Structure formats: C-alpha cells, structure tokens
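S.,

Sequence below, as promised.
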Amino acid sequence: MNGEEVGLIGILFAVLGGAIRVGTPFLFVSLGECLTERSGRINLGLEGNLVMGAMLAYGISYISGSPWLGVLAAAGAGSLLGLVHALLCQQPRVNDIAVGIALMLFGTGLAFFWGKPFIQPTAPHLPAISLGGWSDMPALRAALEINVLFIIGIILAPALAWFFRTSRWGLNVRCVGESTEAALAMGLKVNRVRLLSTMVGGALAGVGGSFLSLYYPGSWNEGLSSGQGLMAVALVIFARWDPVKCVYASLLFGGAAALGPALQSVGVTWGYYLFNAAPYVLTLAIMIATSSAKRRLPGMPGVFSNVK
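The prediction came back faster than expected:
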C-alpha cells in the first residue's frame, strides 16, 4: 500500500470507530425520544437528562468503584426528570416544548453545580469488547473496540420495534400517540401511558449520558455534551420514528461528528472546524428537508400532524 491508500484506510477506520463511539449516546437518546414521541409527547429536555446522567454516573462510579452502579444511577436520574416533565405537561395550558427547554436548562445547571467536585478525580470506566484482535492494524483494532452499552443499544432497538408492533403496551402507546380521543374512547389512561413512556425515554437518555462520562470521552466536565439531546429530535424524524432506523441514523450522526477528528489524525487540518460542524449541518438539513405544512411524514404520530 502507498501512503495515500494507508491514509484513506485510516480515515475510514477512524470514521467507523468514531461512528460507533460517538453514535452510542445518540442511539440511547434517540430510542428514548422515539418512545416518548410515539406516545404523543415531545421532550426537548433530554439534553438535561443526558448531562445529568453523565455527571451522576461518573460521581457514583467514582464513589462506589462500580461503573454499572453509575449507569443505573444515570437511568434513575433520567427517569426522575422524565417524571417531572410528564407531570408538568399534564397540567392545563402547559406547552411540551416550553417545559422541555426549562428542564433542559434545569438539568444541565444542576449537573454543573453538583458535578464540580468530580471534574478532577478519575472514575472506573465501563468495559469494552475487542473484536479486532485478529488484525495487526492498530486503526482497525481501535475501531472494533466495542463498548458493552453499544451492544445493549443494538439489542434494544429491535426489541423496542417488537414492543411497538406486537405487545399490548406497545399498541397502547401507539394508539395514544395517534389520537388522544380514540385512546380515551377505548378506555386507555392517556396520561399514565405518556407518563410511563416519558419516564422510560428519560431513563434511556440518562444511560446515553453515562456512556459519555464512563467510556468516551471518559471524563466529567461541563463541556461534555455537544447537543446530542437536542439533535436526537431531528434524528428521530430522520429515522421516521422507527427504533431500528434510529441505529442507522445514530451511526450516521456519529460518523459525521467523527469526520473532523479522523481527518486531523492523518494530518488534514484544513477546514477542521468546518468538518466538526457536520452533525449540526446535518441536523439543520434534516429539519429543513422534513418541514412541510401540507403533508404528514411517514411514521409521524397522529397527534403531531395537522393534516386532516
């Protein structure tokens, strides 16, 4: 191989590894938002769940010595924020979007305040499985070092799709998300279904945050999140509210975020900051491409559509 071929292969492997690492938080947050939106509610506060989960996971892992206890704590914190969101949104004349933004600011602010003692200490990290040990290429071995949470997310996506398609609870969630009036006529407890969906969605976002602090980048600081919680809304739209497609969309967003560092690793520094903006440009492009006042997107829950 000549130097140009090695450089190209290095970029491809770096983007592959980055797509898996950077895409894992996207995966958990998007699955959580997918569940929440399929019940007829939008939660823009998942960025706060993500940051709070990252802080609490790191703190609990540092104090207890167990990163898995940190993951459980992150899920619990995300679930609690989801509960607050659901309870507030059940009140008359309360807007989901406004509540989500408020809880995003509350969650991030609280995490920054409580997390200051954990900026310097080093906490135990989550384990990873090396699937590239057969190769003598360091770039490939690094790309195929898979964290356990990524594997859990890959299993969770088709499980959630099965839940929506087959299980009684999943069908109830879909019914509530399609039409509040029809769900009430069927005797479903709409508020309870949305509350539980929002809580589980918030818990998944918290788990996504634990990946950030306990594996990649593997530390706690106030700049840890780069807006993954907000971008997850665009990602769910791009995936057409399909949990399995959320996997592909997460890897796409992760690969876009990894493009800049991958190019820098092989010496390409021109336009580095422009490439770092790729996930945000992708988010904006998706929101523009999917905006329409005249048509309903495939898979969109009925309560979000004004199309009669």
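The first strand starts at residue 128 and ends at 130.

Coffee later?
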